[in-house]
Amino acid sequence: MSPLASQTDDFAQWYLDVVLQADLADYSDVKGCIIFKPYGYAIWEMMQADLNRRMKEHDVQNAYFPLLIPESIINKEKDHIEGFAPECAVVTHGGGKELAEKLYIRPTSETIIYSTFSKWIKSHRDLPLKINQWANVVRWEMRTRPFLRTTEFLWQEGHTVHATEEEADEMAAQALSMYADFDHETLAIPVMTGKKPDHDKFAGADYTLTTEALAKDGKAIQAGTSHMLGQGFAKAYDIKFLDAQGKSQIPFITSWGVSTRLIGTVIVVHGDEKGLRLPPNIAPIQVVIVPIYKTDHERDSVLEACEALKTKWTGVRIKLDDRSDKSPGFKFHEWELKGVPLRVEMGPKDLAAQSITYVRRDTGEKQQMLSASADSVFIQSLLSEIQGSLFRQAQMHMQEHTFTCETFEDMNNYLSNVGGFVWAPWDGLRETADRIKSVTKATIRLVDTEPRDMTGKKDVLSGNPAVKMALFAKAY
Amino acid sequence: MSPLASQTDDFAQWYLDVVLQADLADYSDVKGCIIFKPYGYAIWEMMQADLNRRMKEHDVQNAYFPLLIPESIINKEKDHIEGFAPECAVVTHGGGKELAEKLYIRPTSETIIYSTFSKWIKSHRDLPLKINQWANVVRWEMRTRPFLRTTEFLWQEGHTVHATEEEADEMAAQALSMYADFDHETLAIPVMTGKKPDHDKFAGADYTLTTEALAKDGKAIQAGTSHMLGQGFAKAYDIKFLDAQGKSQIPFITSWGVSTRLIGTVIVVHGDEKGLRLPPNIAPIQVVIVPIYKTDHERDSVLEACEALKTKWTGVRIKLDDRSDKSPGFKFHEWELKGVPLRVEMGPKDLAAQSITYVRRDTGEKQQMLSASADSVFIQSLLSEIQGSLFRQAQMHMQEHTFTCETFEDMNNYLSNVGGFVWAPWDGLRETADRIKSVTKATIRLVDTEPRDMTGKKDVLSGNPAVKMALFAKAY
Questions:
Q1: Which of residues A241, A270, A299 is at a domain's end?
Q2: Would you state the pLDDT for residue A1?
Q3: What is the largest CA-CA distance in chain A?
Q4: What mean pLDDT do residues A51-71 have?
Q5: Most buried by CB count within 10 Å: which residue of B81, B191, B225, B392?
Q6: Contact residues, chain B, for A62 at CB < 8 Å
Q7: Other residues' Cβ atoms within 10 Å of the Cβ of residue A430
Q8: Residue of A nearest to B64 (CA)
Q9: Tell me: the pLDDT tens digits for B148-167?
Q10: Contacts with A141 from chain B: Cβ below 8 Å
Q11: How many CB pairs under 8 A join A and B?
């Protein structure tokens, strides 16, 4: 294995090196598509299990809708198809014949799902309807990067239908909170939350809420979005219900999703010069045990002690690396690269002292302790501590890279020379946002949704009265 | 809800009625594709969890490969593309432009996976390589039926690479055993296992093994297949490895899969005139509790007792149906239709007698028992009994509908008038199988793989010396 590129010198290359060398993904023969290798896919399965649990708490049920969307269906919501048509892959032939109607591979499933919901929803008793689907979607992309932007990706998309606007607003906010909690508790990633500026909302939505993380290189990365779709899609797909008074009403819809981009997010937020650092809650291997021995005799007793630890530590995902053709040093390096949160070393000295040696991936700290004291509870609490420590490190980095600016000069200076998030007063005009982008390459990641007195605040660039605080950053 | 069609009078209509009324699936706006509704999808998730556990025992790891396969890749194995090309959906446009190279939506993933394996496999130390993928696939179908035959379906496909032919043969057999065990233990479905006749093997395989179940209407249904691919794909995709002596060798490959067709299989094997009957091991709801009351006062105490049961019974998937706008009779009917294995009724009489009443879906048997005796262990063992009873019923049906015939007249009689499996001596010629099919509509589901003395046996139709016992049946 060639050494990783330096994270500080060439973050983009470092990222690709980690993806490939940590065995997370591989390039494929299909432009813009990657192969999720077992180690990378296992991380996704961990995320899925956790999100399934969270969605169940909101009474969301999993279902599955078709991959292919007939042109006549996808075309019904005008804003939506305008936004997505340029990104779509289109099937024109099936079963050896040209099709009478083109089929779009889903770039997202609002259209096909809502055309079905119109059959399912008749009465207020059918509401709220809360459906989620785990699926692959395809969006044609010019510039791709493993996990972060690929032509095909995996995701979940939640779709809920509500009798009232208030309920739908609340659901959109709840989905966002669910994602923020998931980012925090499961991925150990702090996020900023807020609303996308109108010019960057989901095609066809009333508004879009977003969670934005901060990568180590100071770039923002959108981690999950929640859309309040209002009544637009319901009207386009003829979804109606009879309320308690028997009156026909149009419901309100939300949709929200996170994708395999989250794997990339974990890499760019937590990774270091040695490679990946996985939060224990999504680590396919939480503890790796590396035996250290020289003679055959040592080998037998050391391996026996390693097996004993593996049996003793329950409720923990453990790998015993008993490969005989690799040196301990090679193994240390490999498991560090792959981001395993905790390494346990066991050698003749440990055996003699009835101790174990462990090394934390989050701090690099090495400790020796009595083997008898290292029970399952100890290991589990150590993993919790690592989980918390990764979050705190990421939080510290975000705090140190979040600035508030009143002048454009100040803003441009932070964005160009330091990197990170910049809060600044904004006049609410797309034109101003575009001008700021053309100079700084930064976009508005979100606008503040808290009520705040903007009296006297002026837009950082235009000098117009500001309407909102906006969060600017260069972004993935 | 309209009543179900009669299973005896119109099995095909009964099947569709069950699929739709039990809320398993819905038709979609896309020809030949269905929507997996939450209840149907939950059954699939149960199957997935169980199969993941079984595959893990064989050291198979999950991964994910691209949906779209470039024409130049899918074309490399001649037999394979000949078999699959007529069934493929083809993407010709992406990102608003005509593509330079057509992309096929995977009908199965041998081609895209093995073109990648050629990069991953260098040495005998990389073998065996055992990968599984959960994915959607698309095969253009003229006549579709929910779950049983749909244009898009969900499945798992295992792909393993081995250094020797023996190992690959063994893996193909192990995958078949894994499926047969899964059918038996998890789906409560007995299956026949054997080899597909050469004219019906997987396109590009050396041979195909199959599990065949028997529906209640006497038709066979292929439940899972395991293919020994030999070296054909390895040669086409240039997969080579250096053996321990440093010599370049061509490995042997297997692939094997089961799909959402299994949901249809469960319906046609276990269903009865009242609807679905789900084996407890894959039932999203194993126990439904139906409260029975007339007055508000009764309601409160009955619901309290129901909640207490729900809390008491751990390790069981329970639903308390506390809808106040539906009568107990309506609920009984609905949960029978949806195949819930065990219904518990709790009314004022039960309360007074400190008892519960339960009704088994497999037998319809109704029992009253002391509530104190009905603990988790009792409920769990009752569910095991139901699981076993469903298997025995299906096994009995299969035994009563499996015949051995020495004459064509006899065979034709059984196939036309009784239905089921017919074992008969076969001369090994496709032509003979085709002639039998043209008269009886029955195909060879599998040929016997056990060593057996065929001396003196004559083909049931041609009178030629028979080479194998073949299992004939009309099939889904």
A1: A270
A2: 64
A3: 84
A4: 98
A5: B191
A6: 38, 41-42, 45
A7: 12
A8: A36
A9: 999 999 999 999 999 999 99
A10: 95
A11: 156
> Is the minimum CB–CB distance between B35 and chain A shorter than 8 Å?
yes
Which of A45, A92, A152 lies nearest to residue B67, judging by beta carbons?
A: A152
Question: What's the whole-number mean pLDDT along residues B206-230?
Answer: 98
Q: Are residues B104 and B154 in the same domain?
A: yes
Helix (H) or strand (E) holding B435: helix B430-440
In chain B, how many domains are there? 3
In chain B, the residue whose alpha carbon lies closest to the alpha carbon of A99 is B89
Instruction: State how far the Cα of A446 lies from the Cα of A193, in Å rounded to an integer.
Output: 7
Q: Does the structure show a pLDDT above 90 at A175?
A: yes
pLDDT at B78 over 90: no
Based on the fold, state whether residues A360 and A331 are members of the same structural domain: yes
Residues of A in contact with B34 (CB under 8 A): 66
Same domain, B409 and B299: no
The 10 Å CB-count burial string (b at 16+, else e) for B68-77 is: bbbeebbebb
Task: Rounding to the nearest 10 degrees, give the CA dihedral for residues B450, B451, B453, B454.
Answer: 60
Decide if A47 contacts A147 (C-beta within 8 A). Answer: no
Q: CA geometry: angle at B341 spanning B340 and B343, to 5°?
A: 75
Strands B248-249 and B287-291, by their bridges, are unpaired
A451 confidence band (pLDDT: 50, 70, 90): confident
List CB contacts of A155: < 8 A, sequence separation 6 or more.
Answer: A134, A135, A136, A137, A257, A258, A259, A260
Same domain flag for A94 and A214? yes
Q: Does residue B155 sit in the same domain as residue B258? A: yes
What residues does A157 pair with on adjacent strands?
A133, A257
Contact assignment for B94 to A140 by CB distance below 8 Å: yes
A308: which 2 tokens? 């004993």
Same domain, residue pair A262 and A330: no
Q: How confident is residue B1, by pLDDT bands cut at 50, 70 and 90?
A: low
Contact between B140 and B129 (Cβ < 8 Å): no
Tokens of A163: 């009798």
pLDDT at A2 over 90: no
Q: What is the mean pLDDT of residues A24-32?
A: 94
- Co-location of B188 and B216 in the same domain: yes
How far is CA A360 from each of CA A295, A329, A368, rounded to the nearest angstrom?
28, 16, 12
d(CA A278, CA A285): 9
Segments forming the whole domain that contains residue A80: 11-270
- A423: closest CA among A446, A451, A453? A446
Model pLDDT for residues B194-217, shown as the tens digit of each residue: 999 999 999 999 999 999 999 999
Task: Select the residue of A35, A70, A88 nearest B30 (Cβ to Cβ).
Answer: A70
Q: Do A96 and B112 touch (CB under 8 A)?
A: no
Alpha-carbon gap, residue A102 to B89, rounded angstroms: 11
A386 and A364 in contact (C-beta within 8 Å)? no
Q: Which single residue is written with the structure tokens 């008898």?
A: A372
Share of chain B above pLDDT 90, in %: 95
Q: Dihedral through CA A373, CA A374, CA A379, CA A384, nearest 10?
A: 30
CA quadruple B144, B148, B152, B158: dihedral, nearest 10: -150
Is residue B83 less than 8 Å (CB to CB) from chain A? no
DSSP notation for B225-277: EEEEEETHHHHHTT--EE-TTS-EE--EEEEEEEETHHHHHHHHHH-BTTB--
List Cβ<8 Å contacts ≥24 apart for B178-183.
Answer: B178/B54, B178/B55, B178/B58, B179/B211, B179/B223, B179/B224, B179/B226, B179/B256, B179/B258, B180/B211, B181/B54, B182/B50, B182/B51, B182/B54, B182/B258, B183/B211, B183/B213, B183/B223, B183/B224
Among candidate residues A245, A270, A295, the one where a domain is terminated? A270
Contact A267, A148 (CB under 8 A): no
Question: Is the CB of residue A177 less than 8 Å from the CB of residue A429?
Answer: no
